[in-house]
């Protein structure tokens, strides 16, 4: 079982005094502190299959970070490398300020795998306590924290029932609670809302927001783009083992910001501060035209609105718009013919999409990089 294999390798959890000091330090960490700072992560499996080909990832403290990519992009391999389950071929960087791929940081990390398997004979309360014991949490602290977590995830009334009686959403709640039992600074969740109904997804979203409010950092690996768009402070899109885009959604969609104006019986084109804009006729509603003005400045749009109104044109919609996360994702992972590009490949030469680079951050929010230890470990393991 993946949980057991992981936590059996966790070193002795910090004693109560040290633990309290660590949490005080966490509350004073600024947003520019990097919890995960990885560069040039590569992983080549037997047979020359390149799962990762130079991925870079920077996750700031106290944020929810979304890790996105199509099937076979290398997301799960990257998560397993962070959790020391899989050894990288090469890697440079740190996790929680310590050299990456070292087990000494695992006592400060909580992990919920995508395909977790809880012992079927245990109750929800016993599952949380069990993983707390694997993480070397002291019994008295474990008991109190188990009750707190059951309350937090809304499972106190179900805590004494076996996990076999739980729905998918209830099992995910217990899994999140188990990932928090060691009071981690970094929480890694692999597909936490997969297979959960809409109500359950909303409840899990609320839980993740509460976890972030406690000062923890959350790394979410998910295919549900709408969920990530509602939750994540920043995202990274990886495909074919490379990082294609990384930053806030606002940053990554900067060039797509626009205003859209719908007008009934409007002219073929209108003059704006950014040039002449042609109205696109609506196929569904005769007489309706849509004018798209490429700007994020509302002052640029006002003269066009005034001119249309002065001409007696009825406006039905004025809306500021941008690419959605789904638009950005699709643009990143398809080729020029609109086809999804393959994932892991054997050897070099596989075509890749050009990276999407976020605009430079302002000095107040920029992250400075310091030299980090490098770990290069040859791997001979078979691909899972």
- Amount of beta strand: 25-35%
CATH topology of the largest domain: Rossmann fold
Question: Oligomeric form of this entry?
Answer: single chain
Number of helices: 11
How would you describe the shape?
elongated
Question: What do you see in this structure?
Answer:
- It is built from eleven helices and 19 strands.
- It is of the alpha/beta class.
- The protein folds into two domains: 2-252 and 327-375, 3-Layer(aba) Sandwich (Rossmann fold), CATH 3.40.50.300; 258-321.
- The protein has a seven-stranded mixed β-sheet with strand order 6-7-8-3-9-10-18, with helices on both faces. Strands 1, 2, 4, 5, 17 and 19 form a six-stranded antiparallel β-sheet that branches. A four-stranded antiparallel β-sheet has the order 14-15-11-16, covered by helices on one side.
- Helix 4 (124-134) packs across helix 5, helix 4 runs parallel beside helix 6 (168-180) and helix 5 crosses helix 6.
- Mean pLDDT is 81; it is low at 1-31, 349-354 and 359-384.
